[in-house]
Each structure stands twice: as structure tokens, then as C-alpha cells.
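cron nightly-structures :: item 1 of 1
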Amino acid sequence: MESLAELLIFPEVVPTVGPTQKPRSLEAVGIRQQVLEDLALKTLYLSGPFSVYTLAEHIHLGFDVATELFTRLREQQLCQVTGMSANVPQMAITTQGRARALELLSHSHYVGPAPVSLASYNDQVRKQSVRGLATHHADVQRAFTHLVLDDNKLWQLGTALNSGNSIFLYGPSGVGKSAIAETLSRVVAENEAWIPYAVEVDGQIITVFDPVIHKRIESSPLANCDDRWVRCHRPTVLVGGELTVEMLDLQFNPVTKFYVSPAQMKANNGVLIIDDFGRQRIRPDELLNRWVVPMDRRIDFLTLAGGRKIEIPFDMMVVFATNMNPSELVDPAFLRRIQTKIKIGLVSDEQFFEIFRRVAAEHGLEAEDSILRELVAVIRGLNEELKPCYPRDLVNQICWAAQYQDRQPQLDRAALMHAVEAYFLPHD
């Protein structure tokens, strides 16, 4: 049986329309033949000798396409046949081919799955748009069962998910904005999206699939599927204070000499979380000015090294999470473009007790009501408000102290007061 955590992360995969037409010829691949020949030759130089079948596996194209590429390379005397295995040619690079491969590698080190065209990438992103998702009450309740939220807040979050638009989560620090943002992304991740390994533009390669961000859906291969695409859960990209304006454009690696897609391109068809908004290395007005057109028209423009601009879809839910006043961060015109603003506030006594009991239970501890009531009185006596982060932080203090003393943790008054003393600043 699946664990609750597994169900919360990926409860059920909802299928979308995928790239189900496997190319059967070089022409059907959809990118220039020379790009594929160069890729095949570099692959042979670095990984060969091997069979035509192995070439097909390396570049994620069918045997028919690999055979055409082998024939083309052989005609140009860039490779030769070294034998046959089950009627499949074994190929090796020639001296002329080795010289050509070295020249190609000096221009680009990209070797791997064949890229898709920019047009086919844009078309697929639009087919699986986040605006086409439907989220229901049961989906939201299931996803947020690990958090203590009232029905009104769940209603706001569910409505925001169905909008497919950007969301502004704001409120004091420590009230769970980041946890809520990440949980929103888990609801979106219940659906699938097809992510290409790479995109080709005028002979330039832009890598898109990132195994850290894009989680494969492990299942039986789909018949006749184009293997240049990966069937994944919808992605979540989280950026915080490290975000710079350069990270919002194509990243050209001067060593490998191909491009890495920016955060928003990797987040297409999923969720992009801007955590601690307002504390980035890029000023809020810079970020927002950069995204005025993308958030309005759902398209973005990226710049290649030569200055050429390419258009890609800007299809994601952008979740801004901040503990700063939204009206002080952004102007009214941009705030209007973020159509859902949800204030995440402090918790009630009952909610605080429930959170504390859950956190304590995770550590095998039991929280008595009398101790919790006394804790609330102490916190308020320190001129502090009740925040959802306090139970976990205080229980961690208790467990760390018990570990130091080489004993089992106990949630009694003495242990809790020691935790309070270590955690909160003294009240003058």
C-alpha cells in the first residue's frame, strides 16, 4: 500500500495529449538533416564503435532514422562498416570522420537525445497548458491534509489553482507560505506533461529536461511515442534570494557551447515559486518589468548569443511568496496582473494546538492540553503571536537537547520551557 506521503506528492497521473508520432524518416524528425548528421558523428566519435541500433538508442530516434544517418555518414566516408550482427551493421568512425567530429565538438559539445524543433516545443506546451487543468474540492483537501487550514483558505487556494494564473501569498514570516506554495505545486503535479530533452534553433541547442526538476513517470513505454520527449509530472521550480536577472534568459555555457534553458522555461506547464519575493538579488521592479508582457500575453522572449530573439510560451502558475507588504513591492498595474492575492495569517489557539499535536506525534511524543495552554500564555507574554512554525521549531529544540543528554525526548513543562528560552529572544 502507498504511504500518505507518496499519495500527497503524486496521487494520480492525469494524461495529456503527448507527442505520439515517432519519426520514421529524417524528414519527419522536423529539424535540419545536417544537425542530426553532426549529432550522430559526435556520438560515434565519443561512444563508438557500435551498431546502428545502438546509435538509435543514443540519439533517441528510431532504427529507420538511424539507418538513414548511417548511410549519409558512410557516403561521406565519415564512418565505415566493421561487420554485421543479426543483419544490423556495426559502424566505426574513419580518420576523416574523427577530424570532422573534433571540429564539430569545438563548436558544441552537445551529445545526447536529438532535439525537437522550436515550433513543435511551442505547440506541445500550448497543448498541455496549465489553464486546461481542473482542480476539485477533493483534490485540494487531499493535498493539504498535512497542513492545518480553515475551509475558507482551502476555498481560496482551490479557486486560485483553477485560474491557472499567478498567485500572491503574503503574510508574516513563519506562517507557512512556502509550505502552501509547495503543496499547490503538488496538486498541479498530479497531471502529466511532456518535456523535451532539448530544443534546436538555427543549429543551436537549448537543453530543457532537468532530472532534478522534471520527475519521470515510470510506466511502460507508450507505443509509437517520440522518444525525444520525456513523460513527467508537471514541474515545480523554486527560486529564492539567489535569483538574478541573468537567470531569466538563456544560459550559454562557454565550455560546452550550448544553452541551458532558464527557470521559467523549465517551469513551463507547471509551477514557478518565487520564494521570499522582494529579497532577491534582482530588484522587484526589475523582475516585474521583465515579466509584464509574459504574464499578460503568456509568451516570453529569450535571446541567443548573436542577439536573435526567440518566442516561447510563458505557461505556468507563478506563485509569489513574501512577508513584505505587496503594495510596497509592486505598483498597482502589476498587482492587477496577479489576479489572486491570499493573505496567510496567524493561527488561532485551536489551530496551534492541533499543529503542535501533529508535530509531537511525528516524534513519538504526546502534547497535553494543560502544557499547550501554558505554552500559549508564555508566548503571548513574550509579545509574540502564534505562528504555525513554532511547534516544529520547539519540538526540534526538545529533541536536540535530549540527544545531547543521551536520553529519550520528553514533552514535559521543563523541556518545553528550556526550548522556549533557547528559541525566543528575551523579553525586556
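cron nightly-structures :: done
The chain has three domains: 26-112, 120-343, 349-423.
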